[in-house]
C-alpha cells in the first residue's frame, strides 16, 4: 500500500478560502442561505467555511447545521458492521431557503442522494447546491455533480482518497492511497 499527498495543509487552506469566496459571491449576506455539513466528515468542511466567512469576510450571521444520513443510505443494511448514527443538528427552517450541502469527498453520489432524502424531513428548500472538497469524478453511480468543488481527483480502481483533519486526526492533509 502506498500513499501520495494530494493536498497539504496550505493547499487545503487556499481551497477553503476560494470556496468561501465562491459562496460569498453567490449568496452575499446569507440571509436566505443555510449551510449543512453532512455527518460525519462534511461537518469539518462546513465549520471551517463558516469560520472563514465570519472572521475574514465579516458575514454577520450564517445558519450552520449538521445532517446525519446513516439510516437514509441505500446500503445501511448491507454490511456486517453495526452502524452508529451521529447527531443531526438543524435548529433553523430550511423551508424556502437556499441550502448548501457540504461534504468532504464526492465519490459514488450515494451519500448526497441520502442527504437529499433526509433533508426533506426538514421542509422544502427553495434551492439545493452541493459543495465538496474533493470530487472523484470517475466513480459516480448516480448523476450528481457539485456546484462548488475544491479539487477534482481522477482516482481509479482501488485508489482511495483519505481526508485528515486537525480536529479529528491531528493534522490537515489529503492522501491518495493505492491498495
- Widest sheet, order of strands: 3-2-4-5-6
β-strand number: 8
Strand fraction band? Answer: 25-35%
Mean pLDDT: 91
Major sheet: size, sense and barrel closure?
Answer: 5 strands, parallel
Total helix count? 4
Would you write up a description of this structure?
- Helix 1 packs across helix 2.
- The strands form two sheets. The chain has a five-stranded parallel beta sheet with strand order 3-2-4-5-6, with helices on both faces. Strands 1-8-7 form a three-stranded antiparallel beta sheet.
- The model has no long low-confidence stretch (mean pLDDT 91).
- It has helices at 9-27, 42-55, 110-119, 166-169, and strands spanning 2-7, 33-38, 63-67, 98-106, 127-136, 148-153, 160-164, 173-178.
- By secondary structure, the protein is an alpha/beta fold.
What tags apply to this protein structure?
26% helix; globular; 5-stranded parallel beta sheet; 3-stranded antiparallel beta sheet; alpha/beta
Topology readout:
Elements: E1 2-7, H1 9-27, E2 33-38, H2 42-55, E3 63-67, E4 98-106, H3 110-119, E5 127-136, E6 148-153, E7 160-164, H4 166-169, E8 173-178
Parallel strand pairs: 2-3, 2-4, 4-5, 5-6
Antiparallel strand pairs: 1-8, 7-8
Amino acid at each position: 500500500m502506498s500513499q501520495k499527498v494530494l493536498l497539504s495543509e496550505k493547499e487545503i487552506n487556499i481551497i477553503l478560502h476560494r470556496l468561501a469566496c465562491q459562496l460569498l459571491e453567490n449568496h452575499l449576506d446569507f440571509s436566505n442561505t443555510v449551510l449543512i455539513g453532512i455527518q460525519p466528515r462534511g461537518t469539518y468542511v462546513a465549520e471551517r467555511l463558516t469560520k472563514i466567512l465570519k472572521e475574514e469576510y465579516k458575514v454577520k450571521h450564517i445558519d450552520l447545521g449538521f445532517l446525519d444520513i446513516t439510516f437514509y443510505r441505500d446500503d445501511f443494511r448491507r454490511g456486517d458492521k453495526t452502524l452508529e448514527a451521529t447527531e443531526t443538528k438543524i435548529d433553523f427552517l430550511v423551508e424556502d431557503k437556499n441550502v448548501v450541502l457540504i461534504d468532504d469527498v464526492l465519490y459514488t453520489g450515494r451519500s448526497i442522494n441520502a442527504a437529499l432524502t433526509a433533508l426533506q424531513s426538514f421542509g422544502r428548500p427553495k434551492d439545493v447546491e452541493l459543495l465538496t472538497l474533493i470530487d472523484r469524478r470517475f466513480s459516480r453511480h448516480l448523476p450528481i455533480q457539485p456546484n462548488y468543488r475544491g479539487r477534482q481527483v481522477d482516482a481509479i480502481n482501488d485508489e482511495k482518497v483519505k481526508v485528515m483533519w486537525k480536529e479529528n486526526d491531528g493534522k490537515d492533509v489529503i492522501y491518495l492511497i493505492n491498495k
